[in-house]
Amino acid sequence: MFRFISLASMCLLLSLFYQTVDAQAQEAVACHDLQTYRAMKLRSKTEIDFCAKFAGKPMLIVNTASQCGFTGQFKGLEALHKRFGDRLAIIGFPSNDFKQEYTDTDKVADVCYVNYGVTFTMLEPSVVTGKEANAVFALLAQKTGQQPSWNFNKYLVSANGQSVTHFGSRTKPGAPELLDAIDSVLNASD
Fold first, then answer.
1. pLDDT digit string (tens) for 8-44?
2. Is residue 131 helix, strand or coil?
3. What does UniProt list as catalytic (predicted)?
């Protein structure tokens, strides 16, 4: 009789433990609305699932272009990527919305990977403004009231997706106001 009660107690404890672990795992992978997106990685056959790759992380989302006066910001974005590592997801969305991106994705990739040594996530070119904007930029515009007015607009998204801050093209990746905002979202997610 005692063995039966002990076995039943052990089963109950194990059941409660696994329910707790399962609930924590589900909470850990909960994704917000800006992470319900999939896109192809630049010059790759790899599809990026935002939820799987970026869940629980703040994101810095940038519309990029290879032939723009702000293209040099790739260097600063890469420096941010190296500085913050896996704590901050930096995601580049190449776009020809302002007629300053190559139509050949191999050329886009060469500018990013060869000329600037980019190692953060770069996606295939897409539309980032207007009615044809991809789902991420449509939602960013809705949340901030600002769609990109030019290349290299930056959107800093908190880990839970509740806070989205817009920075224009002229805000360099190393600008104090951007760095302070990044520190704030990182501290909030720790």
1. 555 555 454 545 444 444 445 589 999 999 999 999 9
2. coil
3. 68
Residues 128 and 134 sit within 8 Å (Cβ to Cβ): yes
User: Cα–Cα distance between 123 and 39 in angstroms, integer?
Assistant: 7
The distance in angstroms from the start CA to the end CA of the chain is: 48
Q: 33-189, what's its fold?
A: Glutaredoxin (3.40.30)
| pLDDT tens, residue by residue, 64-85 | 999 999 999 999 999 999 999 9
Catalytically active residues, by annotation: 68
Helix (H, G, I), strand (E, B) or coil at 178: helix
- Per-residue pLDDT, 7: 53
Q: Distance (Å, rounded) from C-alpha 35 to C-alpha 167?
A: 20
Place of tokens 């300053």: 100
Beta-ladder partners of 63: 93
Amino acid at residue number 157: V
Q: How far apart are CA 52 and CA 64, in angstroms?
A: 23
Which among 147, 121, 120 is positioned nearest to 133, based on CA atoms?
Answer: 147
